[in-house]
């Protein structure tokens, strides 16, 4: 089940109550169920809700983290035209 979302739609899910969507590279992750399990803490994730967190993500993690969690957390992709 992979959705195509605009950055505006992602921004509408900025809080845990709204699903806490974040963008890493071109993919959208729904973080609400993971936020309390996140080894880096809930606070830091809540701060990037609804936004592109690629820069912060790659600062603290590597590819293996995405490989492991994408099947559980990834819900879709950012629509190409949304970035223009
Ligand atoms: C799909 C999204 C994310 C997943 C699945 C995830 C998962 C994890 C995991 C498994 C760890 C433990 C360390 C490791 O195994 O590398 C970790 C640590 C951490 N994460 Fe995330 N994370 C995500 C997004 C983010 C974002 C967006 C930020 C920052 C805004 C962040 C900040 C941190 C920090 C600061 C640590 C602690 C690093 C340390 O103690 O050295 N994470 N995360």
UniProtKB/TrEMBL annotation:
Q: Which UniProt keywords apply?
A: Heme, Iron, Metal-binding
PROSITE patterns found in the cross-reference section: CYTOCHROME_B5_1, CYTOCHROME_B5_2
Which Pfam families would you find in this protein's record?
Cyt-b5 (PF00173)
Where the record annotates domain Cytochrome b5 heme-binding, the positions are: 2-79
Q: GO terms for molecular function, please?
A: heme binding; metal ion binding
Q: Which SMART domains match?
A: Cyt-b5 (SM01117)
The source's superkingdom equals Eukaryota
**Membership in a protein family:** Belongs to the cytochrome b5 family.
Question: What is the protein named?
Answer: Cytochrome b5
Q: Which organism is it from?
A: Setomelanomma holmii
């Amino acid at each position: 089940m992979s959705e195509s979302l605009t950055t505006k739609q992602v921004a509408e899910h900025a809080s845990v109550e709204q699903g806490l969507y974040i963008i890493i590279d071109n993919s959208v992750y729904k973080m609400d169920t993971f936020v309390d399990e996140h080894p880096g803490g809930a606070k830091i994730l809540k701060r990037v809700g609804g936004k592109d967190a690629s820069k912060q993500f790659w600062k603290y993690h590597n590819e293996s983290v995405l490989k492991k969690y994408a099947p559980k957390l990834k819900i879709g992709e950012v629509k190409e035209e949304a970035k223009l």
